[in-house]
Amino acid sequence: MRSVVLAGYAAVLAAETLWAARPGVTFSHDVAPILYRHCVACHHPGAVAPFSLLTYSDAVRRAPLIAAVTASHYMPPWLPAAPQFAGDRRLSEADISVLRRWADAAPEGLPSEGPSADKPPEPHFPEGWSLGTPGLEAEMAKEFNVPADGPDLYRCFAVPLPNHPQRYIKAIEIRPGNPKVEHHALLFQDVAGPAGSAAQKRDTGSGYDCFGTPGFLPARGLGGWTPGSGPVNMLPGMAETLYETANLVLQVHYHPTGRPETDRTRVALYFTDEKPKRHLRDIGLTSNRIDIPPGQSDYKVTDHFTVPVDVDAFGIIPHAHYICREMLGYAVLPDGKRRTLIHIPDWNFNWQEQYRYPVPIRLPAGTRIEMEFTYDNSAANPRNPNHPPQRVTYGPASTDEMAGLHLQAAPVRESDLEELDQSLWGKMMRMLGGGVFRLPEK
Questions:
Q1: Which residues does 246 contact at the CB level (< 8 Å), separation at least 6?
Q2: Residue 157 in contact with residue 252, Cβ under 8 Å?
Q3: Angle CA(251)–CA(254)–CA(255) in degrees, nearest 5?
Q4: Nearest 5 degrees, angle CA 266-CA 318-CA 80?
Q5: For labelling, which of 66, 77, 261, 315 has a CA lying 20 to 30 Å from the CA of 408?
């Protein structure tokens, strides 16, 4: 037994001595594992990032840049400071130190070991759909022409489906035809009534202008795409129902690039035979009362909603434009305790995504959900698109502003779903003033 312990101790000493003798960190042994875990999902050929980081030759020419953007926490992009979310991409200080030390000399491997002695295998990225062959594929009817210049475009496209039975969606994937010009995309289903699809009537072939909702209610959201995002997997037991009368509607936010572009976005749906046991709802907090004077650095907007039933919160989606600086969402529980749902101290319009909690957050009936967004319309804000600052109001263009915080939640008891739906509908009608959407005349 003593000899085994001594042998183990000697092995530890030998490993420490070998590490101490290493001339420095290398790409194969130290850097590649970090890049493969945190970076190459976006930085690989054909992905949304402007260059690949899969190979040594890819990375070495950008070694100083990698060290700089990771030290400043600009990369990998991750906006929330609290709470902890699933899929957190932030690098540890140890990882950042490894990248900085490697950038000083940027060796591929130790001379005695060869350049790929310890290099992990490169990640594989499928050329087709990420989840394999889908149950249904659909796409825009034809390419859409995005002009070289002008304001941002919010465009909706009806995507008719062939006759189909009611099915249950377990995952979706959206693939832009031209990621350079597409800021984000949302997918809805238009549950056609006896008169047919509302979106199909409006779309004469090249889509139709839409901002906010896709132009019909109820707008049943299925998921979305932002740069760097992958497939949207529904939560266990919460598949989305695709109704037999439904067609799809894509809402795409285009931003001109300075040259004429085209796009034809595609969609893949994956199905399951498992009926949903619970139904997810979007608890939306928003404000259109935005009128920010030039120079004001602490303009705030707020909204709130009190949940009428016990709910579990599974994720949250924040949204604003360029001059939003800080986002805060929190829950005030019935006992007065306050729980942070999201805190983004330094918002960046270019990195928008959906965040999921590692464990659902239980919010009892009577919990008040609060939103507070702060905007900086001063010349000191480096993301302010206007120089000098101009008055900014609520609107669809990127140079306008918006405020939205969407909590993804489900009633703890499925029998409470109707009561939650009625409360959310009432909140929407109060926001719209009750005069925008009316029941059809008898």
A1: 161, 189, 190, 191, 192, 220
A2: yes
A3: 155
A4: 110
A5: 77
3-state secondary structure of 434: coil
- The tens digit of pLDDT for each residue in 285-311 reads 999 999 999 999 999 999 999 999 999
Question: What angle is formed at CA 41 by the lines to CA 169 and CA 89, rounded to 5 degrees?
Answer: 95
**What pTM does this model have?**
0.83
Query: pLDDT band for position 125 (50/70/90)?
Result: confident
Rounded Cα gap, residues 250 and 6, in angstroms: 66
Q: What is the 3-state composition of the chain as percent helix, strand, coil, each rounded to the nearest 5?
A: 20, 30, 50
- List Cβ neighbours of 16 (8 Å cut-off, separation of 6 or more): none
Task: Tell me the angle at which helices 93-105 and 63-71 cross, rounded to the nearest 10 degrees.
Answer: 150
What is the per-residue pLDDT for 196? 63
Q: Which two tokens stand for residue 416?
A: 């409470």
| Residue closest to 157 by CA, chosen among 199, 211, 190 | 199
In the block, tokens 């929407």 appear at 428
Domains of the chain: 2-105 (no CATH), 136-272 (2.60.120.310), 281-432 (2.60.120.230)
Enumerate the β-bridge partners of residue 3.
Answer: none
The span from the CA of 5 to the CA of 8, in Å, is 5
Nearest to 50 by CA among 228, 195, 221: 228
Residue 206 backbone phi and psi in degrees, to 5: -125, 25
